[in-house]
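Q: What structure does this chain adopt?
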Amino acid sequence: MAVQFKKFDHIITEQFRAEQEFLAEYRKGNYTFANPYVKLNPYLIAPLTALVMFKTAEPTTVSVTVKGKEKAGDIGFSFPEATEHLIPVYGLYPGYENQVELVLGNGEGNLLTIQTEEAPDLVKRPTKITTTAEYFQDNLMFLSPTSPAMTAGYDYRGDVRWYGTLNFVFDIKRARNGRLLIGTHRLLMPPYHTTGIYEMGMIGKIYKEYRVPGGYHHDQFEMEDGNLLILTQDPSRGTVEDMCVLVDRKTGEILKAWDYQKVLPQDVGGSGSQDAHDWFHNNAVWYDKKTHTLTLSGRHQDAIINIDYDTGELNWVIGDPEGWPQELVDKYFFKPVGDGDFDWQYEQHACVVLPDGDIMAFDNGHWRAKVKEKYLPAKDNFSRGVRYRIDTEKMEIEQVWQYGKERGEEFFSTYICNVEYYDEGHYLVHSGGIGTFDGETCNKPPVQYRGEDEKKVVLRSVTVELKDDEVVYEMELPANYYRAEKLKLYCAEDVLTLGKGELLGTLGVTEEFTTIPPTEPGGMVPDKYNVKIGLEEDRLIFKATFDKGQMVLLQLEGDTSHSYFVPTTKRPFLAMCVGTFQESDERAVEFPVSRENLSGEFKISLIVDEYKYDTGVTVNL
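A:
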């Protein structure tokens, strides 16, 4: 079997080609309000969306309503006056003959029928949902998966009204321009660090990819001027998830960086999941304009920290001080006060700074102690949303609210999850990483179980909204989901713009390996390595199968030569926050090489242990 080689277009290129095709088809006809052009899933990755196009002689408004399975399920929107109408349709049901009503400004109507395909099994259905149509209205609860599932949005009945077919990762946020910010589906390095984030319309069109050299993970935050805070790392130094960068919204250029190694010691205050490679594990970033600071969540130090935006200097730490040097405790840590209950947070996620300066987070509670002798087993543990009130003058902290402790182990998530603040007394608490193994509550991320053990795992996700401590919404799904975000499908700012999206920023230059060992000729690469080579617009992707510990070098040989070390020994990741990139075969490796600074024709060869093999593949970069 020869080495498999294939060229791949970027999704932005694929979508532009699809757009050109449906526009050409539209322009061939004379499409009117009575006989409009309808394109289902116009941008290829959002099957429950459609685009309706037609012309009118005079400018007119258009209203669209996707009819619900009952009246309360109607989803609609009104568009401003125009003569050339591009009407996005959102909220279609899967596997259903959808009725879509269009109404012009003069009252003239047209009822369309749009048939959709059934959603795949990876679009999970709720096992429980409790709310009312009056409360939830036309909102959807969007969830992004960490176990095999698809990002999807659910209405008040639990019906799926939107899903995406790409392996989107981490949080979904709506930007001020109405579009969604979400992690790309392009893996940069295991287990889940991707090339950057997409800016995408609800119709599925990707307008921009913001690439970051060190990759993206966990979270992003839109600044007032539109620039983006993106969590990243510098893999070349052997650690991950310990940096944040500010990215220019227009160019993708990195404007500023914060390095937590300059802020905190890496060998103290560790949680039960810490190792030297992933010593901090930053899973959230929040900019607070009032104090001009960044608040960050470090899962592997059980610490929520606050740093100065300009200088990067440490201001304070929320967390159990046990195990930290006394000089740091005295200067940066808070002392609990108040007459109510108080618990520190452990391996927390999703820190949020509230309008009054209070700090909210999801307290996973994993281990719920700083020393091994005090670790709490999952069956006796709890996870919760928590709100702390801090006094940075007196360095005092008070717990003013929590939800979840009373639910005990059935609400316990060792990893992921989030909270949202909507208004005073109105919160979301999402426990997305619940699991049992052989009937016992998991005390490690359930997605870490592989092989036969995986069959013994039962996954759950519970999303709760509370108003004045009353549960007004609760949904349970049979999978693990990183975060939950309540969003409306339609947004006035999210206007469909035609034309090709932009690939911004850079993947950087892939680090080269300069010490080339002596080898013997091996001929063509053996079939047993299952080598596959893919050429993307901005990188080369090498995939193969090797035994653990084999020495592998990928070589590009042309007018200049370049060698890259391909790791075959995988780290024991203690925090598998997204498991959707995991291969079923533990020997599988994937290694990308950025095309940055590579130009010319290159023959691709492979060194495995003492032999050098020819792949038979030549690429022009």
